[in-house]
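go over this:
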Amino acid sequence: MRQVELLAPARDFATARSAIDCGADAVYIGARSFGARRAAGNATSEIERTCRYARLFGARVYVTLNTLVFEHELPEAEALARELIAAGADALIVQDMAFVRMGLGVELHASTQTTNASPEKVRFLQECGFSRVILERGLTLDEIGAIRAATEVELECFVHGAVCVGHSGACYLSRSMGARSGNRGDCAQPCRLACDLVDGDGRTVIADAHLLSLRDLDLSARIPELVEAGINSFKIEGRLKGQSYVMNTVAHYRQLIDRCAARASFGVSKTGFDPDPQRSFTRGGSEYYLDGRAPGMASFRTPKAVGRFVGRVTRVGGDFFEMEGEPLAPGDGICFGGGSGCDLGIAASNSQKAVTGCNINKVEANRVWPNRMDGVAHGVEIYRNFDKAFNDALEKARPRREIPAVIEVEVSLKSLRATATDSAGRSAAASLDGPFERADRPAPMAESIKRQMARSGDTVFAVDSVRVSGEPVPFVPASALNALRRELLERLAETPIPARQVAEQGERGCDGNFPWPATEALPLNVVNSLARSFYADHGVARLPPPLELAARLTGQTVMTTPYCLRREIGQCLVDGATLPEPLALRYGRHSYRLRFDCRRCMMEIIA
């Protein structure tokens, strides 16, 4: 089977270790600055610690430097990049082309923020020296296949987690409302806020709804097709997510990928729990646009976790309700009205109330006493968004990842020589010098040697077998055998797994032989001289003013997205819409006009 990587988010070292223990082949982690999740930054020492642990299993560590870099920050950004490389980072994830010009000598991965949605754009990045391109989430399976057919560069795609509604995350909506900018690692997530939809006649069509808040991505059922399409790395979103979420999701996708692809790292994970991503944070799953544009992507009534459907209310009492369905337990969190079919259509959107929730205090059979009764009514659907028993199991679990190894011990009265070989192909040797006395009972002594040498303890190895050869069999104290085993396995752990061949670095097309693709819109995120020189050398003579440096964004397109609000509410222009143009979104004092490009099937949001 073809080797495919499972890539997990890491908020910090502890999360990275848990992800690797649960089966991740690689983790991506933020540095102390220049990462698109400012709240998930880490000291270089923590990243170095993560790299050391990952190396034990041949896993990789990618560091996010995926914000825009202002001119005065270029020296600091380059110094940090070189510091991270020295700490052991296998690759840097970037969107600013300034990093290409720094001659860093490390793999560069093109962040999804570079808008990687066409064969022409991905081929351009390949020629510019990127070893990997992270694809836009809204691509169809056919579009992914077309990109694969036209390129040789590694392709990474998101398979699980929150979906940024902006096309490839290149969004200025937060920046248009205040000082917090997504392209500077500080997105205020206004897309998750409630707003009003206003039509061309000034009527409020939908009021106080989360119109841009998308359901979470879940491509669990599509892994074999994506492997077949040529994806090299499956990425789980969530550098701000907690350890339990990462453990659960990684373990789930590890099982799925193992059925159709070979692992990109070594070791066998023993998680201590049965993964189920629906029992961790979820806004409700979708496959986004993998099969083409379709409604049903948004969650109008809440941007928060909805969880999994568990039953319906059959009777309401004064401080309790009765239900049919999956049993609840004290400590569970539930919400009412999180169903997937209730958000579609203008009438449904205006008639449904916001999702409400509560915690469970007591349960007797099918009778439930919550801490509040808001939203409880006969026939209401119940969703469990916090499963206490499952989360307790995750917190108690102690995932362990082991690399199978075999040990051979050659014995004589002069010395013991032990050799260990693991499934990664590493070998190490250690010896114990004598002289020793001949064992009175050779067979039991040989068994004792096998037993003591097989005890791998708290190392990363699982010794599957020990073979003893040579004669006469000496008598060796257990303490001496334990010391020999510790030295042997320490040496084995210190033996590096051969590193993956680093892709050729440098711009192959920077002399103008590979110009900026004519099919692509000019980049709006060029904020420093190194990036400007990069594009100039690739044939872009004049760049548009960068939106990130604009004093005001009035009149500017602050988001382009494959998510179409008209389609979502049954008012697609192609299918005979009745709502008069122009439509607008209103967030308090902020107003945005919507423009619909039906040829490309894209929506633009204009400040």
The two ends are 49 Å apart (CA to CA). The first strand starts at residue 5 and ends at 10.
